[in-house]
Amino acid sequence: MNQALQGMKVIDLSQVLAGPYCTMVLGDMGADVIKIEKYPNGDDTRAMGPFHNNESHMYMMVNRNKRGMCLNVKKEEGRDILYELVKKADVFVENFRPGVAKKLGIDYDTLKELNPALIYCSISGYGQTGPYRNKGGFDIMAQGLSGLMEMTGEQGGKPVKVGIAIHDLAAAQTAIQSILTSYIYRLKTGKGQYIDVSLVDSGLAWTVWEAAAYFGSRQVAGKTGTAHRAAAPYQGFKTKDGFILIGAANQKLWETFCLHVVDRPNWMEDPRYLTNSLRTLHLKELEKDIEEILSKRDSVYWLELLEQHGIPCGPIYTYNQTLSDPHILEREMILEYVHPAAGAVKTLGFPAKFSETPGELTKPAPLLGQHNEEVLLETGYSSGDYKRLKQESVLN
Fold first, then answer.
1. What InterPro entries does the record tag this protein with (predicted)?
2. Is 35 exposed, middle or buried (0-12, 13-18, 19+ CB in 10 A)?
3. What DSSP character marks residue 192?
4. Out of 43, 90, 168, 201, which one is annotated catalytic?
5. Are residues 271 and 170 both part of a single domain?
6. What is the span of the domain harbouring residue 176?
7. Is residue 168 among the annotated active site residues?
8. pLDDT one-digit tens code per residue, 288-339
């Protein structure tokens, strides 16, 4: 099958989530990704459960479509192997704390001497510059600094972490788009470049509505539960047997909701609810009024009625319900591959559906050091070199 990034060679020295997710997507699109794990135990997620035949499912989720090496780059011969790989690479991804790559002799200034066309992407908590550059930065710290935790949850409640590692994934997406942008630039000019991506910057860049409110009126985003900051009704509402989501977020939908769903035409004349802005100002009153009606019937009744009248709505699922939903399954968002040690492994599918160059599962996540010899032979080393390097603790 033809894939968009066939021919791109990626050297991946990242671990855990942001970097591996970035390189997984490049691999899904056809790039030859060589994941180089630290000697001797590999990526930290290999030690995180759940496990299948001693293989971490977390590791397998974000390291599919890669070949794997376990290389001791602290040793001179380990660095020399990496240098040989870099000479033929298009992209290099790492997520060391700033300064570590330079100490190891694998920083951008060193590697661009070997390959001036190299696209080198560093992913870190706070970036390569600024007063916080040397701080250790995990996703939760980025959520705190970016303001996300203070705007997540219910009013009056404690700060709440977003349910997924949102800054890690934002950094991964930023790295993907930056690498592909740089790749296009290189195709035009032949020039490589350095990319500095931080978890904090990447997540902060997504707070566009909140920034607009602050820059426009000095309004500081606070907790709104499931509600929208600038549209109502647009949130979760309690029914007789649970919660549903309703998005009557413009005037036409609001009027349809009043007339045909809750049978409250008088709300269209209520001075509190005349416009979207007024409804947002009186959100708690609106929520109480709507839930008083919704609490009389089950969720399925209201969802069917809302759908009938063209008002965006939906359930609030538990995650196991999500993964068994017929729409999710038909969209092929759950795939399965066979891993050499773990056997059949389920994984998430490809979110973008390409007509000409679709994503493809071509390789399971590698065993630790699985492709050491294969990659060495491609680089010009011999089988004898491989055996010697294993004995000398350069390879696992």
1. CoA-transferase_III_domain (IPR050483), CoA-Trfase_fam_III (IPR003673), CoA-Trfase_III_dom3_sf (IPR044855), CoA-Trfase_III_dom_1_sf (IPR023606)
2. buried
3. -
4. 168
5. no
6. 9-205+327-391
7. yes
8. 999 999 999 999 999 999 999 999 999 999 999 999 999 999 999 999 999 9
